[in-house]
Amino acid sequence: MYVIGERINGMFQDVKGALIDRDAKVIQDLATAQMAAGATALDVNVGPALSDAEGGLMWLVETIREVSDAPLVIDTAKWNVMSAVVPKVPGEKILNSCKADVEIAAKVRGGIVDDGGDPAGVGDAGSGAFQDVRPGTDNARSEYANI
């Protein structure tokens, strides 16, 4: 089971400011505080803070990797960003807010966080959010069960 720290998100003003200013200390302090509080994975989300979501996510990943090797939850609904970032993320990773698709899971070999919503994309948060964290999808489970 994963306990996912959700605080590294560009929707928060301190994270937004850290993304814009590239202030690593803010992000690293949040990462270490969440791990100390019991998180076993860290969600990273640029939100609307930057127009370069790919660059922002990679900066978050690199910044966090300086202080933690915890699994990272790559949180973006933009498939082009997800597909560009995930292969570059060292260590364990989980996909969040992405389309639950066998081909996508096979390409990135990450876990998919099932938000309980529409398999075509981000679902209704009240529909049973985070029911399951599974390697890929059921069809990809046996081949990509390394998460």
From TrEMBL:
Residues 118-147 are annotated as: Disordered. Residues 20-101 form the Pterin-binding domain. InterPro entries: Dihydropteroate_synth-like_sf, Pterin-binding_dom. SUPFAM superfamilies: Dihydropteroate synthetase-like (SSF51717). Pfam families: Pterin_bind (PF00809). One of its GO terms (biological process) is pteridine-containing compound metabolic process. This is Pterin-binding domain-containing protein. It comes from marine sediment metagenome.
